[in-house]
Amino acid sequence: VTLPRFFVPSVGESRHVALTPEEAHHLTHVLRLGPGAEIRMFDGRGREWAGRVASIDRRVVTIEVAREVAAVPEPPTRVTLGVGLLKGDQMDAVVRDATMLGVASIVPMATAHVALPKRARQSDAAIARWQRVAVASARQCGRAVVPTVSPITPFDALLTEAGHDVVIICVEPARAGANAGAAAGSRPSALLVLVGPEGGWSEEEVRFAIGRGARALHLGPRTLRAETTPVVALSSLWTRWGW
Amino acid sequence: VTLPRFFVPSVGESRHVALTPEEAHHLTHVLRLGPGAEIRMFDGRGREWAGRVASIDRRVVTIEVAREVAAVPEPPTRVTLGVGLLKGDQMDAVVRDATMLGVASIVPMATAHVALPKRARQSDAAIARWQRVAVASARQCGRAVVPTVSPITPFDALLTEAGHDVVIICVEPARAGANAGAAAGSRPSALLVLVGPEGGWSEEEVRFAIGRGARALHLGPRTLRAETTPVVALSSLWTRWGW
Q: Confidence band (pLDDT; 50, 70, 90) for B118?
């Protein structure tokens, strides 16, 4: 039996914690739990605890922390997913699925072929919403880590900032060919996986990525939907290097 | 440049073909193409042709067939995807994504933990809708093959009917462990990939599958969403055996 899970960043060594208003709403109104109910809490940074609802006072839900428990293991490789901006609900799906597939960090990218109005690119509200989607997905998939969602970053800045120990993988959908190049050799400790927007990469971006040592990852000859490509790419990489 | 594609089952050796009303609507009203426009046609069984709009007469769109062209290659393994029944829009997503990931055939399964009303299981309208989703996805992803969507089939009947040369793979999400067992050895020519419903497999189903020689495929320790599991499983298998 899977116990309901709540995001509580501040558990630490506390014996009692209060849920945030969002989590309290989820506990009382969505799951309709009452005092005494057993739950799990995760701090978004990899720790998980067992606890029980101590009291519900108007909108304040207090949890008694019982003990720390083993968290679901994280993947052995730290993955940053750079993803060309998609429309709002497509981005929601990308964040939800990338969280479920174990990425450590998500960076929405401004690339040459992104076709969104400039205003949409600068929306802090969008970043906050995607961060909430990441919390909800971590809650459901059992992860104790919530990936960070970064502000929108230009493609070349993301590549330039990547440390020299980071293996860069550039997804090239709709092209047949061996993946030997991309997932060859032993498992790297850190990966930057780049997925383009609907319009794909510009020639200049491909040249820039190759110049930074990026490896191309081919995912078969069929054209993948932009919002599904990250799932396919991550599944392929974990199959090579362990989940 | 990718030309717009249309599903025309009856091209064969014809010099001129008429589009079905659905495809004609798509050409005239969605894509707003007119006489002379260059298009592609696929027959759903693996052949593709170049053509051009010859005439549009009220709702009848006639295409002049120019020549047969090379179709996007199919995966080297024939995959039947058996998927535990999900809610309507989740099933739509499964059919769309499984088509994009190259399956040859999709069988919605009645399993022990499927929680749908019996009426919903017998709906011919649902099968017809999923078949339309498969056509739309083939159109978009560039495949010339449209997977067949079978009537809803009991889990044990699907396993019993599988030929003895078919490798059966039973997806066990949310469990860590090596996939060596599932994707070991050389590429099989035919696979039956089984994905459970939201509620997972019953113990009896697992025993029955093992008795039929099924291999378990583990997809990491995180709980995957039911409608995303087929994408993850297929991506993992193609990574082992070629796309």
A: low
Over the stretch A114-134, which tens digit does the pLDDT of each residue have? Answer: 766 666 656 788 999 999 999
Please report residues of B whose CB lies closer than 8 A to that of A181: none
Q: Strands, DSSP E only, in chain A? A: 5-7, 16-18, 38-42, 48-57, 60-69, 78-84, 105-110, 148-149, 153-154, 167-172, 190-195, 215-218
| Chain B residues with CB-CB distance to A180 below 8 A | none
Name residue, tokens 């293991």: A73
At residue A1, what is the residue type? V
Instruction: State the Cα–Cα distance between residues B80 and A115, nearest whole angstrom.
Output: 37
The Cα of B236 is separated from the nearest Cα of chain A by a number of Å equal to 5
Given the cut 0.85, state whether the ipTM is greater than it. yes
Whether residue B182 contacts residue B217, with contact meaning beta carbons closer than 8 Å, is answered with yes
Q: Are B6 and B41 in contact (CB under 8 A)?
A: yes
Is this prediction's pTM over 0.90?
A: yes
Find, among A233, A38, A40, the residue nearest to A143 by Cα: A40
Which amino acid is present at A226?
A
Residue B195 buriedness (CB in 10 A; 0-12 / 13-18 / 19+) = buried
What is the number of CB-based contacts under 8 A between chain A and chain B? Answer: 100
Chain A within 8 Å of B199 (Cβ-Cβ)? Answer: no
Contact between B142 and A100 using a beta-carbon 8 Å cutoff: no
Query: CB of B84 within 8 Å of any CB in chain A?
Result: no
Query: Which two tokens mark A20?
Result: 């945030």
What does pLDDT average to over chain B?
91
3-state SS assignment for residue A209: helix
Establish if A77 touches chain B: CB-CB under 8 angstroms: no
The 10s digit of each residue's pLDDT in B23-60 is 999 999 999 999 999 999 999 999 999 999 999 998 89
The answer to whether residue A221 scores a pLDDT higher than 90 is yes
